[in-house]
Design brief:
The structure is a single chain. The chain is an alpha/beta fold and 218 residues long. The chain folds into two domains: 117 residues, HUPs (Rossmann fold, 3-Layer(aba) Sandwich), CATH 3.40.50; 89 residues, putative n-type atp pyrophosphatase, domain 2. The strands form two sheets. The chain has a five-stranded parallel β-sheet with strand order 3-2-1-4-5, with helices on both faces. Strands 7-6-9-8 form a four-stranded antiparallel β-sheet, covered by helices on one side. A hairpin with a 2-residue loop joins strand 8 and strand 9. It starts with a strand and ends with a strand.
Length: 218
């Protein structure tokens, strides 16, 4: 059986790619998340380690972290992929990108450097339909960061069909593939339990809105 590492942001696209890879017959083995240079939250979505660990626990999988600035991101990514190849019986790396060619090229490059095959299960899917498919397949995701076109009022809101319609009426991409918003998956049919979080406060940095989340113990 082909075992995979999942490039795990904690958001809807990586989670749906994870699910799709399982449907294709691949076996999930380990999650990989890149933290910022301070190691206190994820590089892409601004999610803290305790929440990412809670997701990994809900998936019953180990999660591997490393910290990086943007300048040495690629070198560190390859180094950590090679380490994970030594530690786990993985043959493939799963990514959640949809249609940005430069992202795919990079993912294939770093995967090949570690003798892994890159798999992009969402590739070339219709952006809006992919979000609706995620919702229909039982993925529950909340908005954890967004640009000023959306604004801080959207932070903490659950992604559903009606919010997608709202996004489109505002001229915002349904999937947020252009960076309009990022999400945190709090539940899915393949989670052992729902991740309980609360928005403690909202902040803005570089014209981008962030929700600081706290983990609520069940």
């Amino acid at each position: 059986m082909n075992h995979f590492l999942c490039s795990w942001s904690g958001g809807k696209d990586s989670c749906f790619a994870f699910y799709k890879a399982m449907q294709l017959g691949y076996k999930p083995t380990v999650l990989l998340n890149v933290m910022n240079e301070f190691g206190d939250r994820s590089r892409s979505h601004g999610i803290t380690k305790p929440i990412l660990r809670a997701q990994a626990e809900a998936l019953d999988l180990p999660i591997h972290f490393f910290s990086s600035s943007w300048t040495d991101y690629e070198a560190k990514y390859i180094k950590n992929l090679k380490k994970l190849v030594e530690d786990y019986p993985i043959t493939h790396a799963v990514f959640g990108d949809i249609d940005i060619e430069s992202h795919r090229a990079w993912e294939e490059k770093v995967s090949n450097s570690a003798n892994l095959e890159a798999i992009l299960p969402l590739w070339k899917g219709n952006r809006k339909q992919l979000v609706l498919d995620m919702i229909n397949n039982g993925l529950e995701a909340i908005i954890v960061s967004c640009n000023n076109d959306l604004g801080s009022d959207f932070l903490g809101k659950t992604i559903d069909a009606s919010i997608i319609e709202t996004f489109e009426s505002m001229g915002v991409d349904a999937c947020g593939e252009n960076g309009e918003y990022h999400t945190l998956v709090v539940n899915a049919p393949f989670f052992k339990k729902k991740i309980q979080v609360e928005v403690i406060k909202k902040s803005i940095s570089s014209n981008y809105n962030f929700a600081e989340l706290g983990l609520v113990e069940n």
